[in-house]
Amino acid sequence: MSQGPTPLLSLSGVSKRYGGVVANSGIDLAVTAGSIHAILGENGAGKSTLMKLIYGVETPDDGVIAWKGQPVRLSSPAAARRLGIGMVFQHFSLFETLTVVQNMALVVPGAQAALAARIRALGDEFGLSVDPAALVHSLSVGERQRVEIIRCLLLDPELLILDEPTSVLPPQSVVKLFETLRRLQVKGMAILFISHKLEEIKELCDTATILRLGRVTGRLDPRNHSAKELATLMIGREMPAVVRAAPLGLGEVRLELAGVGYANDDPFGVSLSDVSLAVHSGEIVGIAGISGNGQQELAALISGEIAQGAAPGAIRLLGQAVGDMGVAARRRLGFAFVPEERLGRGAVPEMSLADNVLLTAHGRGLVHRGFISRQAERAFTADCIARFDVRTPGPETEAGALSGGNLQKFIMGREVMLEPAMLLVSQPTWGVDIGAATDIRQRLVAMRNQGVAILVISEEIDELFQICDTLHVLYKGRLSAALPTASITVNEVGAHMIGAGQPAGAVP
Amino acid sequence: MRLTLVRRERASRLAMFAAPVVALVLSALASLILFAALGKPAEQALYSLLLEPFLSWYNFSEVLLKAAPLMLIAQGLAVGFRANVFNIGAEGQLIIGAIAATALPVWYPAGTSVWMLPAMIAMGALGGMAWAGVAALLKTRFNANEILVTLMLTLIATQVLNYLLLGPWKDPHGFNFPQTVPFPAAAMLPVLLPGTRVNISLIGALIASVLAYVMMRHRFSGFQLLVSGLAPRAASYAGFSERRGIWVSLLVGGMAAGLAGACEVAGPLGQLQRSVTTGYGYAAIIVAYLGGLNPLGIVASALLMSVLYIGGDNAMVSADLPVAGVAVFQGLLLVFYLASLTFIRNRVVLIRRPGAAR
Amino acid sequence: MKNNLNRRSFLRTSLAAGTALALPVPAFAADVLNIVLIVPSPAADVGWSHTLELGTKALEAEYGDKVKVSLLENIAEGPDADRIMNKTVADGNTFLILGSFGYMNGGLKLAAAHPEVSILHASGYQTAANFSPFGARYYQGTYLMGMAAASLTKSKKLGCVGAFPIPELITSINAWTLGAQSVDPSIEVSVVWVNSWFDPAAEQNAAKALLAQGCDVIFSNAQDTPSVVTACEAAGAYVFNLNSSMATYAPTKYLGVVGTDWAPYFKASVAAHLAGTFKGASAWLGIADNCVFLADWSKDIPADMAAKIADAQGKIASGAFSPFTGPITDQADAVHVAAGVTLGDDDILSMDWHVKGVTTPLPK
Q1: CB A261 within 8 A of CB A275
Q2: What is the helix (H) or strand (E) element at residue C33, kind and residue range?
Q3: Does the beta-carbon distance from A70 to B357 stay under 8 Å?
Q4: Smallest Cα distance from B309 to chain A, Å
Q5: DSSP code string of A415-454
Q6: Burial environment of residue A108 by CB neighbours within 10 A (0 to 12, 13 to 18, 19 or more)
Q7: In what order do the strands lie in the sheet with A253-262?
Q8: Is B354 inside a domain boundary?
Q9: B137 and chain C: CB distance < 8 Å anywhere?
Q10: Ramachandran region, residue B181 (left: φ > 0; alpha: ψ -120 to 50; beta: rest)
Q11: pLDDT tens per residue, range C235-273
Q12: For residue A445, which of A253, A288, A245, A287 has the smallest C-alpha distance?
């Protein structure tokens, strides 16, 4: 623990319970100025609750939170902000129809022109370049994150909390973000950095507090420990390595896109042109690229949520031309899909997990003659919760009450239990911690080994390299040619992701 | 120090039950002051409004009579509302249902067939469905806003009613008054409670409530509608047809309103006349939301609205309350109720001055 | 009154605590006659409902605190009205005045169930032992208005805004037409039906349509609002209406009013009720009954015409002349009433045809 100067923020014996669930128990934590402090932990370990307590979203049941040595009561985020605590959430809270500077003006007093000047100045100082006049919906995820960080910085915080900030960024942007954080550190700012990417933590942070099951299980300097040691402290056991089976002989083609184009009506959406790919039985194909380059449109075209209509090209799914087929019909062919948005698309937040199972698993004996079989529904849900290690009180819990990683495990489990012949997974481990992410990747590989055809759309290059047989990169609506993972490097893929690679998918 | 609202982890059941009670008490207090300020006998007015409907068998039977159509229509509308399909033209669907049902007694004014009444009920249901179906067609084909379409179709329905009553369907012995022939006995709903005007449509409304409950709680089709309402993108992801949801929502609502129309002409009216509906189609929207779009809640809210109507009329008669006074009370109740609904998902937190501990 | 005692004690225990307001209980003493007037439109300062209200005011003036009159306005015809009528009787009212045709069926049922109650019903056609339909012979007055209109029209085109095409209103239009033709046989009358007793916007639009067609004298037939009258004043066309004077709404162009005074009839009926001699009978009251009267004549009417009108009014009052005296030709050019024949009350009460000169076909 830091000795000497009074820590900027200190927690002692802080506990928080939700009903019978202990989310945080006797947490001690000290964050000093000028330190980048990592908070590590699995899903359900209590990281989010801890951040909510520090940021004033929740109040602790027990224990003391002190700011510069004085006990404080943080009853709201506004109170936390007034003390000098800023937070960048994993899910951004920006108004999409407003410009950057208008979004800022909602929380920061002052004329917009002056604000725009400050935004530019901060951008120059900390490497956070963003156009103040741009509408938020036109910004990439990386840019939005910069906007969120700038919005915090405008309030001159002394402590900045970042929740999984790198999970949405391409490798090149991660480097830039770290530069920014280091510059802030030099200015004396304290940073709480929540991440599950152990290598990043080792690279960036000078202190790490590790949580497991709501308790602190380790306090250390990550620079002096191996990633394996950190992981062991975090998940309580040795990190299972993803079993990468030997390449299989390719089976039949289960998904084939030939020259598919899509003209987006939405002026801020992405249009696709001439996208071709093939996914075989027993193969995992990955699509790399920064979000907002056509991933959503591509996934929706394959799932049937966007009707292909008169758009060019052909989509064949499990041996059938599916251009005119609806979502339900495609699913009946043996297609399953895990979307990138879990709340509101992959799951209905206000409904119980059991009802959320019904969403796509209704064909598996959960509905008899139009009546929902509550028993079958609950059994399926309980099975899913057990097999996929979803941390939740039970099938009746509302989906919205689950943490992001747990919900992902649930949705993943639901779709896997449908025993699909062709599985499309979009951002399988977005915001999911390392233990859960490893688990999900292992399951994908296991399915592949059983002959399932899998298409994975992900922003995490490491993940794709870990599990995929073949990679494509999607950039501005164009898909690169297939790149065998065995013979390319991360940097080559990274180059494609920012448009520096050869657009191999160009029209011949 | 100040008060602020904080979202609850999950909906409070206590608040759910307390909300209507609190609303009732607050609106009673507010109107007590208002009526007293108007120089009207305030306690007499509240007594008439809230208690008298329960204190005599006759009054209570009238509550039941009026609750039946409100309940029936609200159950039908709630199905659509939960799927975010906003059919606010139940008034028009009711009128068309009443017209369709009236066709038979107009064509067979001396009919005695036992099939007359069932046929009228069926025609009423079909009439309401057809009228709502127009909105469904325009919505699914041309993406025409169903709120506007159903509302405008109500205006058209009123004109159709006027045309028939002033023209081809006018009672030849009615001295040109705009009404049809009185229905023969075979075209009238049997009275359920002897000595009152309550007919078997009350049973129908209760059956509809049970069916709505079963549909929304136990049927997969109801589940699909709920998903479309709560998370349209999840519905699309799961492959639930949006078109189907729109059609089902509007047809169910139209059917309920059409049935209610048929039951009005074959019940207390006994003929088709211009006052076939006194705003049931609109009141049912309030009933549906007052009942939390929950089939059981709607049974309760239909009774409550009916009490307010009967009580309101009573207050006019007994407490000399002006029509507007009754409307103000009903409005107050709704405002207070909607306000207290906030506390089901939110709680009040007292915030001490931040930084006071510094 | 047991009912009221219950109510009183209940209120004491439930509501009175904490309130200093005195408990109001209607004074239903046995020697007070409780009278209810139910009207379909909002009570206004003019029009049909207003004249009925004036009639009940006359009762209060006559009987003082021996009667208590309650006015229930804006009561929609249909099941609600039926329930409200029942409620008034349950509350101890024993004399009901139903101000609209649409209350007939409910009123008849109520009369049958409560023989002790006496009911007067406006413009209906059904009678029972304790149920009397009543109406005014407006046609007697509109005939005279026709003469006046004929003396002032330049376009020879008259217009009428009508509520509903029912016999009462049809006879008024026919008599008006006949009165005008008695002066100038070439005069024609156009009619617009608004199908409402109370719809100011529709009435005003109808008036404007007639004015646009060149009609320069307008008959506001059975409207409870002055909207037609104000529209005519603004357009510079003469206008008259029924029931109560709207002269203040048309200071320069008001032709006059065919007024109704229900006080004599109401007084007589209440007297009969109190004496226990009330007997349901149709009461169709005209000039001779002091029910229909004419007032607020326009000063623009030539003196000789005024004299002729006064003369005709005297003959109608004495029974020497009826407006519906043959020969009368109908719209189809057929002789509907032969020369020398005078239509009886039954024929007038069920009139469903227009006389020649009314150019608008009657809605069938």
Answers
A1: yes
A2: strand C33-38
A3: yes
A4: 35
A5: HHTT--SEEEEESTTTT--HHHHHHHHHHHHHHHHTT-EE
A6: middle
A7: A272-280, A253-262, A314-317, A320-321
A8: no
A9: no
A10: beta
A11: 999 999 999 999 999 999 999 999 999 999 999 999 999
A12: A245
What would the two tokens of residue A272 be?
A: 């696709």
User: Does the ipTM exceed 0.90?
Assistant: no
Distance from CA of B177 to the nearest CA of C (A): 6
Give me the sheet containing A9-18, strands edge to edge.
A21-31, A9-18, A62-67, A70-72
Q: Round the CA-based radius of gyration of chain B to a whole number and report it.
A: 22
Residue A280: strand, helix, or coil: strand
Tens of pLDDT along B18-64? Answer: 877 888 888 888 888 888 888 888 888 888 888 888 888 888 998 99
Alpha-carbon span B97 to B262, nearest angstrom: 6
Amino acid at C60: E
pLDDT, tens digit (0-9, with 9 covering 90-100), for A408-443: 899 999 999 999 999 999 988 876 777 778 888 989
Specify the pLDDT at position C224: 78
Q: Which tokens in the block code for residue A20?
A: 């019978």
Structure tokens at B239: 């492959």
Residue type, A471: L
Residues C302 and C343 in one domain: yes
Read off the CATH number of the domain in which C82 is found: 3.40.50.2300
Domain assignment of residue B39, yes or no: no
Q: Strand, helix or coil at C282?
A: coil
Instruction: Give CA separation, A256 vs A252, A260, A281, A321, C151, in Å.
Output: 11, 10, 12, 9, 92
Residue of A61, A73, A358, A392 for testing the chain B interface, max B β-carbons within 10 Å: A73
Tell me the mean pLDDT in the region A338-350.
89
Pairing of strands A314-317, A253-262: antiparallel
Bridge partners (DSSP) of residue A255 are: A279, A317
Q: Do chain B and chain A touch with ≥3 beta carbon pairs under 8 Å?
A: yes
Residues from chain B contacting residue C346 (CB–CB below 8 Å)? none
Q: Can you give the three-state secondary structure of B262-285, one letter per residue?
A: HHHHHHHHCCCEHHHCCCHHHHHH
Q: Determine if the peptide bond prior to A7 is cis (ω within 30°).
A: no
Tally the domains of chain C: 2
- Domains of chain A plus CATH, in order, are 9-235 (3.40.50.300), 246-334+421-508 (3.40.50.300), 342-419 (no CATH)
In a domain, B300, yes or no: no
Alpha carbon distance B168, B180 (integer Å): 9
Q: Is the pTM of this model over 0.80?
A: no
Q: By three-state DSSP, how is residue C221 classified?
A: strand
Encoded tokens for B88 = 């606010």
- Return all residues near B213 (Cβ < 8 A) that are at least 6 apart: B295, B296
Question: Which residues on chain B are in Cβ contact (under 8 Å) with A296?
Answer: none
Residue type, A195: S
Distance CA A215, CA A25 (A): 6
List C-alpha distances in Å: B238 to A97, A356, B250.
28, 10, 22
Q: How far, in Å, CA of C164 to CA of C40, rounded?
A: 14
Looking from the CA of A458 toward its CB, the CA atoms found within 13 Å total 29
User: CA torsion sign, A13 to A17 to A20 to A25?
Assistant: negative
Residue B348 buriedness (CB in 10 A; 0-12 / 13-18 / 19+): exposed
